[in-house]
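#lab-general

N.A. 3:47 PM
ok so I finally got the sequence cleaned up, no stray characters, all 249 residues accounted for. can someone with queue access submit it? mine expired

B.Y. 3:52 PM
send it over

N.A. 3:53 PM
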Amino acid sequence: MTVMSDPTSRADGRAANQLRPLRFQNHIAPHAAGSTLIEWGNTRVICGVTIEETVPRWMKEQKVEGGWITAEYSMLPYSTLTRKPRDISKGRLDGRSSEIQRLIGRSIRAAIDLEQIGARTICVDCDVLQADGGTRTAAITGAFVALSLAVKKLIAEKKISASPILSGVAAVSVGLVNGRALLDLCYTEDVGAAVDMNLVMNAAGEFIELQGTGEEATFSDTQLAELLALGKAGIRELLAAQQTAIAQG
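B.Y. 4:20 PM
back already:
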């Protein structure tokens, strides 16, 4: 499928099918088993993984073998243009944060054989330092790198004998803005999108999750196909960047 690529049509000069600049800074949190700071355009998310040598009570009660992965997501108060109060100050987790951390958990659980990690809980924490669109996709993409580094540590410490990772996992946004299909929306594009979609996929080219919404708009089969084609190509680039970051340790 041919995608129009007029670089002057986007605020940051990118082509329609171009990702924002991407960088991983590993071991940003020394006390975590694995961590990375993902810098994706002007979005910054710290992803850290810690490992607890126990499993949730429900697994013990139901005699479920293996381990578990859970995730938490938060936006720091200074991550947005206007201060965002911490959830704890409101006495509850807001609906958006709850939805995103469940999405991160589902996505990362799809990357790993839970039985192979033993009776352990892998905790994935994603904290947004700066938000310019795509914080959930950045959190998922960075979380997989942090997870992979944590798995390396488990193997080095001889707590597991082989990697339980089944496949790489990455996520990206796509959308229809002014009638054009665009990859990897920044904030201004996200708020102006008629259709907004997030793709989570693995390295086998399989979908883990698709979230697509028309914002007071509809979209056709042809437009959906174009968005999916853009997203799949972007995911392939992200998976390659992840592997480079993981190999650097």
